[in-house]
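User: Quick one: structure for sequence A, then sequence B.

Assistant: Sequence A:
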Amino acid sequence: MYRPYLIAPPPGCRFHPRCDFCFDKCRVELPDLKEVKPSHFVACHLYSDSF
């Protein structure tokens, strides 16, 4: 199992090394943090407001 090195996180999304849905953009670009409900946030390139 991949264990992240918290002092020097990977580039891009910090979860990409252990995400089953990772794609190229995840490895290089940090996703924007979006508030989906009051005090509930998501940061994922695959998240869509149309759910």
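Sequence B:
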Amino acid sequence: MIWLWTALQALTLLGVVNYWRHLPKERKIEAPKGVVVILSVRDEWDGGANLIARLKAQSAPFRLLIATSGNCPAADLLAAREGDWVQVVAAGVAVDEGQKVHKLRAALRALRPDDRYLVFIDADIEPPVRLVGRLLFPLVRGKADIVTGYRLLLPERGAMAALVGAVEMQLATLPRSANATMPWGGAMALTREVANRLDLAAALAGRLSDDMTIGLAGWRAKLRLRPVRDLLVASPLEGRTADLLDFGVRQYRHIATNSIGMWALATGVVAVQAGAWAWALGWGGWVAVAIGYGAAWSRALVRRVIIGAVLEPAQAAKARRSLLWDMAAPFAVAWAHLAVQLAAATSNGICWGGWNYRVKGGRVIRMDRA
């Protein structure tokens, strides 16, 4: 058993090393004409001063299309002040699909004839200046059909936020390949041609998850989905313990309600690691524990290098808080990861953005105000 444990830990370490070794040394960008960045915001959005400043600093020009439900004063004020590059579209309130999806579909209907490249972002990210240009590079060069970055959580304070960040960092630093990539809606791009090919507005109709729907549609159409490994995009994380746990469960419930097979595969992989840690601590003896901690510290050191290479210094300092869990209690990270995966499969209910949804096969079957 000790040899299987050693092999498992070696594989997990090699996976993180593989991610680090494939970080692009040259982070090339493209800045074509006809780029529109689509941002969905809630009614209570405060205008995102930091986000807007970061978008203005982007290395590639674009038009910003903000999708609201129709009652977001901050978005209307921004458009009135900066109408030369900001447009607001009001979607109204959904009745049979996710509110975010409803707003994105309204944005797609509001596209102009010369909008050739579509970039989707979330309101809670801290994008680097290269974000838009890096997402566009594979599209312009004809190397991909759908391009994506990935979220890297920045725990603001508290042990629970750092633990959730540690779980997410396991996913963020997994080896990535074109045939095993699911896009993340917080930093995703595709061409207008691909959107038309997928009939994107129709594909999203009735759905709750935007990125899962686009990713699965892309897989079925045999499109080339490509990750940009240096785009681990900072996303602040804070809140009460219950809110943080709900966040983790919600992410996996999106997966489970769209593709139970994908959920089962991910849960099985984590269950092996979680079960192996239980064996090591209970019956493996000090040698097994030493091997586990040695691999965990090695993974943390490599992740520290990755974080420093892709994030700004202040962002990296926050992200490194999650590494403390990997170094002090790596078994707790594995067990917490498995716990949220299992909890996700206990219900098809998802509370998100002020709404309670019931989802079956990725489709909204009922929605009520939270």
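The domain at 25-240 is CATH 3.90.550.10 (Spore Coat Polysaccharide Biosynthesis Protein SpsA; Chain A). The radius of gyration is 21 Å.

User: Thanks, that's what I needed.
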